[in-house]
Design brief:
Layout lengths: L20 H14 L4 H22 L2 E3 L6 E3 L6 H9 L1 H6 L2 H18 L2 H10 L4 H15 L5 H16 L4 H15 L8 H14 L14 H21 L12 H11 L6 H26 L17 H4 L1 H20 L7 H12 L1 H20 L1 H16 L3 H15 L6 H18 L4 H14 L8 H11 L7 H29 L11
Antiparallel strand pairs: 1-2
Helix pairs in contact: 1-23, 2-17, 5-15, 5-16, 6-8, 7-8, 7-9, 7-11, 8-9, 9-11, 9-22, 9-23, 10-20, 11-23, 13-15, 17-22, 18-19, 18-20, 19-21, 20-21, 21-23
């Protein structure tokens, strides 16, 4: 099988000699990034660096006040007897309880059945048959922005779908993966839907705000108007950057022939005629609607076990166990479609498809071991707490005008986010300092929360410290063995930086016009 070259009449990939300066800079970024060791070894090297830094900071006696507890916290040296003891005895737990590990494994069991039955390929072909190669970019971008509602499961579901969608219109499936990833990762906080993360952000902001005003309450809907508009603005921005910048380098995302052939073979349901396929898709849709209806009915009673305390829906069993419901959903629709098309001929085929799915992500599992041990070390040292508190104190001392202060706050948090990539963890650390500080300067807590969303989102897609970043690298390597950190950064960097600028400008316009950020949440 010859190597496919992903070019279209609408999006022509230029020859290397035709590339501009910007593209050459990105090529340099890619080469530099890919010159780094394999991500598995890189995280062990970074662990050694963190250990040395923690030892130096520990000797300096640096202490900060943890805003969440009020206790003085210092950096703990990783080069100590306690560190060796705690990290060795906790190594197994750190790996087994590593957040993305369980989600990826569980959801992949269902996704593998839906994918290998040919359902994803058939849906993509049917839905995208009338779209141009440019239109599919906006479609995948919108799907990624809205898909963040699925929490971390969105990456497992939408990154492979992005590959299928781009392949269906003759574009590089690797670029489809990258568009899906950056849409979820960098624009996910612009989701117009109320997700569990919104409730968490609001509760942390409320606790922080009540340090200044005891009656202040921040709600999960307080950024709804702003995030709804932002979702569509950012999706359009992603599509524009991909077409104007990334498409010029798309020819560099050519999969290895054998891996592309294997991927195509997994999703093509050979021998399915058009009538059978259409009937199977319709009945699969009925099954999907039936499943959704059952879940909704199960949640109707206020005392339903799928609800949370007091009948809550956002903070509920359903949302906490969303990965389980997604696994069952994809298992159901994949099985129904496979049986109707003859792709699944017996019960043995289902566990075989599941096993194939797990085998396909084996490189991710190896990578997750290194990442989980590094993050356990980084968390143990308390470096993240010190960085967050010192950064917040710096902003407080500046005393700049609101828009200048907002810009500095966004820059500082975006830089912090390169190291502390958990949005909820970083918000928990900085909110108790930032929210009261800005309230005293006349800024509503909902505004501070919106500023944090902007700063926290965009740089997630360019830092190897992010577990979702390394997850995407792993997916790229399923199509191209030499794809690495540099490959992904060189494509996400332009998107992330332009998105950050666009989102900041949108917020400034929103602020100057005085438009409420959400129901009952003034911007100033």
């Amino acid at each position: 099988m010859s190597t496919p070259v992903y070019r279209t009449q609408e999006v022509q990939a230029p020859e290397p000699g035709e590339e501009g300066r910007g593209s050459r800079i990105l090529d340099l970024v890619e080469r530099a990034g890919n010159a780094l060791p394999h991500p598995f070894w890189l995280f062990w090297i970074l662990g050694g660096v963190v250990a040395l830094v923690s030892w130096v900071l520990n000797l300096s006696g640096l202490r900060v006040e943890d805003p969440s507890s009020g206790d003085l916290v210092g950096v703990r040296s990783a080069l100590s007897v306690d560190a060796v003891r705690d990290l060795l005895t906790g190594a197994e737990e750190s790996f087994v309880t590593f957040g993305p590990l369980g989600i990826v494994l569980m959801v992949m069991l269902g996704v593998a059945v839906a994918e290998r039955s040919g359902l994803f390929e058939a849906l993509a072909r049917r839905m995208l048959s009338g779209l141009s190669p440019r239109s599919v970019v906006l479609g995948v971008a919108l799907g990624g922005v809205l898909g963040k509602f699925l929490s971390d499961s969105a990456y497992v579901v939408l990154i492979p779908l992005g590959a299928v969608a781009f392949r269906a219109v003759g574009r590089s499936p690797m670029l489809g993966m990258i568009v899906a990833f950056v849409s979820i990762n960098a624009a996910g906080d612009a989701n117009p839907l109320i997700a569990p993360g919104d409730a968490l952000f609001a509760s942390v902001a409320t606790e922080a705000a009540q340090l200044v005003g005891k009656d202040v309450v921040v709600r999960a809907t307080d950024n709804m108007y702003f995030t709804t508009v932002s979702a569509f603005v950012l999706a359009a921005t992603i599509a524009l950057v991909v077409d104007k910048i990334l498409a010029k380098r798309e020819h560099r995302l050519t999969p290895d022939p054998d891996l592309e052939e294997a991927a195509a073979r997994q999703v093509v349901a050979a021998g399915v005629d058009d009538t059978t396929e259409l009937r199977a898709l319709k009945l699969t849709g009925v099954a999907a609607l039936g499943y959704a209806a059952l879940v909704v009915l199960a949640m109707v009673p206020g005392s339903s076990p799928l609800r949370g305390e007091g009948g809550a829906i956002v903070e509920s069993t359903f949302m906490d166990a969303i990965a389980v419901f997604l696994t069952v959903f994809f298992l159901l629709v994949g099985t129904v479609y496979g049986r109707l098309t003859g792709r699944i001929r017996g019960s043995r085929a289902i566990p075989e498809f599941m096993a194939d799915g797990v085998r396909s992500i084996a490189p991710l599992l190896v990578l997750f071991f290194a990442v989980s041990q590094f993050l356990a070390l980084f968390k143990w040292t308390n470096i993240s707490t010190v960085v967050a508190v010192e950064g917040a104190d710096l902003l407080k001392q500046l005393g700049a005008p609101p828009l200048v202060l907002f810009t500095l706050l966004i820059v500082v948090i975006a830089l912090m986010n390169l190291l502390i990539t958990s949005g909820s963890a970083l918000w928990t650390l900085v909110a108790p300092a930032l929210v009261p500080m800005l309230m005293l300067l006349g800024t509503h807590p909902a505004t501070t929360m919106a500023l944090y969303r902007i700063a926290d989102s965009c740089t997630n897609s360019i830092t190897p410290m992010s577990t979702s970043f390394m997850l995407c690298v792993g997916y790229l390597q399923t199509l191209r063995r030499k794809a690495g950190i540099g490959t992904l950064v060189s494509f996400t960097l332009p998107v992330a930086m332009i998105m950050l600028v666009v989102w900041v400008l949108l917020f400034f316009a929103w602020y100057l016009l005085g438009i409420p950020l959400g129901p009952g949440a003034p911007v100033r």
